[in-house]
Design a protein that fits this description.
The structure is a single chain. This protein is α/β, with parallel strands linked by helices. The chain is built from 20 helices and 16 strands. Helix 7 (about 185-195) packs across helix 8 (about 220-230) and helix 7 packs parallel to helix 9.
């Protein structure tokens, strides 16, 4: 058996490894397993092949100073009944003629993560935004692009929203026909969008090279026109007229980002460029010889085949995040792990700005008309002293009709409040959408965020649909926080933008301790709002407001 000697361990298990076979908890040290590398991961168990290839997971584990354990080493330890210490080691597999000794451990003192991070860290004053450029050939990558757009990106967007980060992507081959993609501005558009998304770049390569001038085939006038038009802005492409559009994207986006005047750190750019090479055998397994669909997945030109092979060899030789040999069956997990690790690197969950977990996107900010009287009223409620409030207080309601901007107003005000960095105040926000209306889930998320902010460990919410139980648990959390706040002479703002989507808020306490201000959005039902002691009504737009907004 092998025991990881730690107070606790969170083990990420690599593909093809069943760590539960040989990691045993021998005492009070709890061991948890996860398929993803997160900020809580302490150990990564991998295969010798994956370790030798320095896959994206291995590189991410090294960057995060996670202890890497090679599976064959652990199995040798099992055979000799040795114990693996959890010291600062990168554990290498012993050769067949060696025994498990202290010499089997390789110190990672030579690994200098701080130097690496200094090269790869982005400008701290950058916008909190991730925009990913997707590069792929056309006919053979429909399944991969569909997986990204329908499954992966919604999950990443949810993570980004929790961290106050705007998430979007550019896929110029999604939702259009191949003929429409081949116009005289195709190359120009591609390279411009690579710059727009920089430093984030994903490339899928299978057995097709892409749109190019191939030897032995007729000259492509449309492609030549596209090169000519793009060269006016990107003259460097004149050296690559025999290369495919996909290779141009890769050269500009990842191999030579220094070609762009917008690239401030080539090292940071390369570390955020992810490559996924499809396993060639997956095509053989999927299509029989002679299947007419197979030609969409393989090159029929020896010239294109040679260029593709050279391009893959170039990428393999560079220090770039690479998954070499994926299949559709394991792609979801690989993509999610790689891109989640990237988000963790650039926008850690514990950053101060992540206090406000809801996001005012750039479009919402630019299209937002600031009503001064509404903002002033919200400020008044938030800044009122605890002594003035005297006892339990109801939530503050932001009331407005359908489409009046209730959620955007509250989010925008929260953003301003957060950026003001008020010393005696903390902010916790949890957005509610029409897709997330379960009271237990919302309350559980809120309790987790509050517990993280105030180091609470005694509160947990067992699954229940009983609103009374949820309300009682929430009030206990707020009372515990109120005790801390009064000792520190601070206040807490809790916001639930989008709460007007809920059919009922009966799971929330009706009143809250006086050091806590809770803000909700609420539909205007046309009833007399004057009976509500704490409310802000969004007024209907006047003609002058509309004119100012349009200007």
């Amino acid at each position: 058996f092998v025991s990881v000697v730690m107070s606790s361990a969170s083990v990420c298990v690599g593909p093809g490894v069943d760590a539960t076979d040989f990691i045993v908890n021998l005492g009070s040290a709890p061991i948890s397993f996860s398929p993803y590398i997160t900020n809580k991961t302490t150990h990564y168990v991998t295969t010798q092949k994956e370790f030798d290839q320095q896959t994206t997971r291995v590189v991410n584990a090294q960057r995060k100073n996670i202890f890497i354990v090679v599976e064959s080493f652990l199995r040798d330890c099992v055979a000799s009944q040795s114990v693996v210490d959890a010291g600062p080691y990168l554990i290498s597999p012993p050769t067949a003629d060696t025994h498990v000794t202290a010499d089997s451990f390789v110190s990672i003192k030579g690994w200098n993560p701080s130097a690496l991070e200094s090269k790869q860290t982005l400008n701290p004053n950058r916008k909190r935004e991730i925009k990913i450029f997707i590069s792929s050939t056309f006919r053979d990558m429909k399944d991969e692009r569909s997986l990204l757009v329908s499954k992966i990106f919604p999950q990443l967007n949810a993570i980004c929203q929790q961290r106050n980060v705007a998430f979007s992507f550019v896929d110029l081959r999604w939702g259009i026909t191949e003929s429409n993609a081949k116009d005289d501005k195709a190359i120009l558009k591609c390279l411009e969008h690579v710059d727009e998304c920089r430093p984030y770049f994903i490339s899928f390569l299978g057995e097709r090279y892409g749109w190019s001038q191939n030897d032995g085939f007729s000259y492509d006038e449309k492609l030549a026109d596209s090169f000519k038009k793009a060269a006016q802005k990107f003259p460097w492409i004149n050296k690559y007229k025999d290369r495919s559009v996909s290779e141009l994207e890769i050269i500009y986006g990842a191999l030579h980002p220094e070609l762009s005047p917008l690239c401030k750190s080539p090292e940071a750019n390369r570390s955020r460029s992810f490559f996924f090479f499809r396993d060639p055998l997956s095509i053989t397994k999927r299509f029989e010889l002679g299947d007419p669909e197979r030609k969409n997945y393989e090159e029929d030109s020896s010239d294109a085949h040679r260029k593709l092979r050279e391009l893959k060899e170039t990428i393999r030789a560079r220090d770039l995040p690479l998954v070499d040999g994926y299949s559709l069956e394991n792609l979801h997990e690989l993509l999610l792990n790689c891109l989640t690790s990237m988000i963790d690197l650039d926008f850690p969950a514990d950053e101060a700005a992540a206090q406000c977990s809801s996001l005012v996107s750039r479009n919402e900010i630019s299209a937002y008309y600031r009503n001064e009287s509404v903002h002033k009223a919200l400020q008044t409620f938030a800044s009122s002293s605890t002594k003035q409030r005297k006892g339990l207080q109801p939530p503050i309601l932001v009331i407005g009709g359908e489409g009046s901007g209730k959620t955007t107003t509250l989010l925008h005000w929260l953003q301003e409040r957060l950026e003001s960095a008020i010393q005696d105040e903390r902010i916790v926000s949890n957005s509610i959408t029409e897709d997330s209306l379960c009271p237990h889930s919302i309350a559980n998320d809120l309790i987790e965020k509050l517990s993280e902010n105030f180091n609470l460990s005694a509160f947990s919410l067992p699954y229940t649909q009983d609103n009374d139980e949820i309300r009682t648990c929430l009030f206990g959390v707020f009372e515990a926080i109120d005790f801390q706040l009064k000792k520190l002479n601070k206040r807490l703002i809790v916001a639930l933008p989008g709460s007007h989507h809920l059919p009922s808020c009966s799971w929330l306490p009706e009143k809250f301790p006086d050091s806590i201000r809770v803000f909700l959005t609420c539909r205007d039902t046309g009833k007399n709002n004057s009976k509500k002691p704490n409310f802000v009504i969004l007024p209907a737009w006047r003609a002058s407001d509309k004119e100012s907004f349009i200007k």
